[in-house]
Amino acid sequence: MNKTLNELRVEIDTLDKQIQSLIGKRAELAAAVAEVKRTTNDKGGFYRPEREAQVLRAIIGRNDNLLKGTDMAHIFREIMSACLALEQKIKVAYLGPKGTYTQEATLKHFGHAVSTLDCSSIDEIFHEVEKGNANYGVVPIENSSNGVIGATVDMLYSQNLKVCGEVEISVRHQLMMADQSQEIKVIYAHQQALDQCRRWLNDNYPHAELQAVVSNAFAAKFIKDEPNAAAIASEVALGLYGLERVAKNIEDKTGNTTRFLVLGKEEVPVSGKDKTSILIVAKHEAGALLDLLSPLKEQGINILQLAHHPIPNAKWEYMFLVDVEGHQQEESVEKALAQIAKKAIKINILGSYPVTVL
Known about the structure:
This protein is α/β, with parallel strands linked by helices. The chain is 41% helix and 25% strand. Strands 1, 2, 3, 4, 5 and 11 form a six-stranded mixed beta sheet that branches.
């Protein structure tokens, strides 16, 4: 016999109460964990990236219902975020203002219970974490269309923060303005967004002036009271600043994705599925890079990324950003990095961290 709509709603209400009660019990256990850590002087810290990655992987792995595994993991991500806030309020620095892709990446990785600190530059994010004004920072490291983010690589080269996580965000650019009945004479956006939408802009607004600004969210905020002006920004910024959409998803390449790094001061233990990021400077001679990376091949370690970037204040000299599979505490990775260190002019192990789950 089919159930009535009212009967189904009653069942849902009953389940909701049970779910809420179970979440409450989980929160009590999280508070108890925090108390144990305080009384025993546990050095592991309250935020454990490897532990969270393991939990989310297990949720996805055992999922067998109508919801997608990743959707279920997103729900638990928020539960874990709220429970972590009971243990210790985490503050995370990101590239502001509100509505940036970096803020979106921050909330995707840490959940909405985290406390955030918006910064005006990538440099400032590094400095706020260094000074202890933020526990962690989130910075863009590479875009699938534009490659590595030079400002981030420069700071990784000169600072001593550790990479303790990664997160990816699909980049879908929206064209917006305060009053779309007006003619568009100038379009504001971050330079990368302008580059990523170049063909579309040339086809649709060939006579509009293109103005690069510090971030897309700043562009959206700025044009709110600016006549004949449009901005390229995210869906979040569109709603946040009360603007009207002129065109949707105007990026030239579909699947445009930006990868972000999570920065902190602690090294992350093995999670079971990790990657390690290093910066190396090779000798300026034929075959030096190939020779430098040969220990990775000898140890059977896969290179996930290899990008070169100019060394600050050193003309025609380059550093190499390398991501490899595995954790630096694993024997094969440890051996390969030790051999590379003997050959390189400089090596900086940026950190080992869990491969992104969501």
